[in-house]
C-alpha cells in the first residue's frame, strides 16, 4: 500500500527580480491563510565553467553571499507586510527548473514570478517558469499582477472546467483556495460549434438552434460541481457556460479574477505552439495570478 505524501510549506522562488518579490508577497498571504510556513528559495545554478571549483573558491563564496543577501532582503520586505507568517530561507544548487521540481515533491504549493520570456521565445529558448509548471508534482502559482491586484482581495477565483482528470484536479484546488481565501468561485465551461460538428461547415449552421446543446452542457456543469459544492458549502459558486475557445474565454475572465485555475497536460512549449495550451497561454497573458495543476 503506497504511503500518501505529506505536503508541507509554500515555496516561493526568489531570483532578484521585482516580479519574484511580488509573487512572494502573494505567497506570504496564501501561507497565512493556509497556516503554512513560507520558504524563500534561491537556486544557485551549476554553470559549466564552475566545474572543478570547490565550495571554498572565492567566486563560489561570492555567489552564495549575493544569493543570501537577496533572500534576506526579500524576507525583510515580506515581514513588514506579513508579521505573523513563519518564513524560512534556503539556498539550493542545480538547474533552476530541476531544483524547483524536486522541491515540488513535498511542497504544498510553489509560487513563481512571471515568465521572463515571451510566449514565442519560450518555444525556442525555453522558460523555467513553463518547465516547472509543466512538471511540478504540486500546484504552481505563476504571478501575473498586471492590474496591480491586491495579494488577496474580494475578487473571485475562476476555474476552467472541461471534464478531464486534470480539470477535476484544478476544480478541487480552486474550491480549496476559495474556501481558505473566503472568495467566491466562478466555474467556466466553454463550448464551440466545431466540438459538435467537427470540421464540416455549412451556411445552415448559422441558423442552428443551440438550445438543447446549451441545456445539456449546463446540466453537465452543474452535475460535475455538485459534489464539490456539498464538500465546501461555504463557497459561493457561479456556473458560467461560454461559447468560444477556452484560451480566449478564460483570458477575458482573468481581468476580473484574483486567481485563475487550470489543469496542464505538461506539453513542451514547442508542442503547445501547434496543439495549443490554455495553461501556457494564461501564464504569458493572464491579468491575474494563474494556478496550474498537474499533480498533488
TrEMBL record:
The keyword DNA damage does not apply. It holds the Pfam family Usp. SUPFAM superfamilies: Adenine nucleotide alpha hydrolases-like. Residues 64-91 form a coiled coil. It comes from the Bacteria. Transmembrane segments: none annotated. Residues 10-143, 154-294 form the UspA domain. InterPro entries: Rossmann-like_a/b/a_fold, Universal_stress_UspA, UspA. Keywords: ATP-binding, Coiled coil, Nucleotide-binding. PANTHER family: STRESS RESPONSE PROTEIN NHAX, UNIVERSAL STRESS PROTEIN RV2623. Belongs to the universal stress protein A family. This is Universal stress protein. It comes from Rhodococcus tibetensis.
Amino acid at each position: 500500500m503506497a504511503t500518501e505524501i505529506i505536503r508541507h510549506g509554500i515555496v516561493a522562488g526568489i531570483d532578484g527580480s521585482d516580479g519574484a518579490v511580488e509573487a512572494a508577497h502573494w505567497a506570504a498571504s496564501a501561507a497565512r491563510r493556509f497556516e503554512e510556513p513560507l520558504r524563500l528559495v534561491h537556486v544557485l545554478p551549476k554553470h559549466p565553467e564552475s566545474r572543478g571549483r570547490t565550495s571554498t573558491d572565492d567566486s563560489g563564496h561570492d555567489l552564495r553571499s549575493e544569493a543570501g543577501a537577496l533572500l534576506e532582503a526579500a524576507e525583510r520586505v515580506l515581514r513588514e507586510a506579513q508579521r505573523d507568517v513563519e518564513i524560512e530561507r534556503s539556498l539550493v544548487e542545480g538547474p533552476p527548473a530541476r531544483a524547483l521540481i524536486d522541491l515540488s515533491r513535498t511542497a504544498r504549493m510553489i509560487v513563481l514570478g512571471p515568465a521572463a520570456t515571451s510566449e514565442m521565445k519560450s518555444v525556442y529558448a525555453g522558460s523555467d517558469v513553463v518547465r516547472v509548471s509543466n512538471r511540478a508534482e504540486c500546484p504552481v502559482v505563476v504571478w501575473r499582477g498586471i492590474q496591480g491586484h491586491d495579494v488577496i482581495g474580494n475578487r473571485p477565483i475562476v476555474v476552467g472546467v472541461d471534464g478531464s482528470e486534470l480539470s477535476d484536479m484544478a476544480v478541487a484546488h480552486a474550491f480549496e483556495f476559495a474556501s481558505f481565501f473566503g472568495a467566491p468561485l466562478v466555474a467556466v465551461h466553454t463550448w464551440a460549434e466545431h466540438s459538435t460538428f467537427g470540421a464540416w461547415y455549412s451556411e445552415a449552421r448559422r441558423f442552428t438552434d443551440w438550445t438543447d446543446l446549451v441545456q445539456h452542457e449546463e446540466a453537465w456543469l452543474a452535475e460535475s460541481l455538485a459534489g464539490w459544492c456539498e464538500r465546501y458549502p461555504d463557497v459561493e459558486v457561479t456556473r458560467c457556460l461560454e461559447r468560444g475557445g477556452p484560451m480566449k474565454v478564460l483570458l477575458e475572465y482573468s481581468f476580473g479574477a484574483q486567481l485563475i485555475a487550470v489543469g496542464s497536460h505538461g506539453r513542451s512549449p514547442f508542442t503547445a505552439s501547434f496543439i495549443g495550451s490554455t495553461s501556457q497561454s494564461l501564464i504569458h497573458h493572464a491579468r491575474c495570478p494563474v494556478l496550474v495543476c498537474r499533480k498533488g
